[in-house]
Specification:
Length: 442
Amino acid sequence: MITKPKGTKDLYGTEAKRWQYVSRVIDEVMEKYNYNFIRVPVFESSELFHRGVGETTDIVTKETYDFTDRGGRNMTLRPEGTAGVVRSYIENKMYGNDDKPTKLYYNMPMYRYERPQAGRYRELTQFGYELIGSDDPLADAEVISLAVNVYKILGLRQIKVNINSLGDAESRNSYRKALIKHFEPHINELCDDCKERLEKNPLRILDCKVDADKEIMKTAPKTIDYLNDESKKRFEKVKEYLEVMGVEYEVDPSVVRGLDYYNHTVFEVEVKIDGFGAQNVIGAGGRYNNMIEELGGPSTPAIGFAVGFDRLMLALEYEKVNIPVNTSVDLFLLYVNDDEKKYAAYLTNELRMNGFVVETDYLSRSLKAGFKQADRLNSKFTIVLNSEMLENNEVKIKNNKTKEEEIISVDTIIYYLDENIAFDECEDNCENNECNCKENNN
Ligand code: HAM
């Protein structure tokens, strides 16, 4: 048997329905925030990620899926979305548009050759968004509050937002010097990768998975102590706006983010549910004011965030959030002879075009097996088409919940279904105390 590659998953059945529901909610929220959907290629030229994400980041040095295409070009499956979106922003000259800032969002698979475990995959899905063209601290606060709102709207409560600032180029430079001073005397205690990082990008030492628990890591200098006045003021503004927006957060100096492109605000959202597991960062992002220029575009500030969709779904499951999944059909149509089958073909099509979820039999089942199938599909109503009745333009329809049967005119099926499905849903809501519609219907 051929099996799926390690670190990937098949999405189907109820789980697929849950994903689709969450995606739809996300689409609605993003529309309210005036973000436009963008899709970029699954593979891009390898150079984009080397230049965009950074030569010293783990996802580029160790985790990319690289290949040479038949034309001899070096290609990489995207490990994240920001670099591709920025490439598209530049290539399509979106900076020339009047409607600044440009707000783009995506929901797509990414590829990282990581060691798979619960919540960590090689094919992972990210829902992410990028606000390009504003350096205003208000944009930082909005991007953070949008993340929190998405989680909240979906029903996730047990989350924590950690923010930090890496500051501007000057602040980052003095921080870099402080890190070198701190780590250099202990260079032999660090892993070989970190030895190299000390020269190339000492910030990356802080997210080393091998040396993570060493004492020298815990006593490392903190970015926040190396911010110059301007960066400090900027960070204060971001916090002020967050407070105005009612976003709860904690300043966590250990948030430095594993990608090279960040400056100023960086942030992560963690799940705080008992037993959730080690992969509890369900989303992360930050400001990247230099990337667009570095990739050949005009100097343009930007900030963004990406939700780990797989981890988000796990968190919703752990927090037992009820995700409405439609597991029923409105009507099941049964028939016995060929003429009735033809009529079923016509009526199924007609009713679907009028917005109903309709199923019929495609396996030449007996009536008894057909009723069973209608039950399995949780069908709200069943009609057994009958040639004689159809001659009189009539059908017998059964309400599968009340077991009541009624003979109605074919011309009124749509009205009948409309009214009765609405009434049943209304009653269900009443039972769950979700509305006072029962009173209205009595
Ligand atoms: P990232 O931190 O590399 O940032 O990934 C964002 C989120 O994707 C993580 O917080 C995590 O929830 C999820 N994630 C990462 N790797 C895996 C994995 N192997 N399996 C499952 N989930 C994973 C970025 O990708 C940036 N592009 C975010 C950003 C957007 N920054 C600015 N704009």
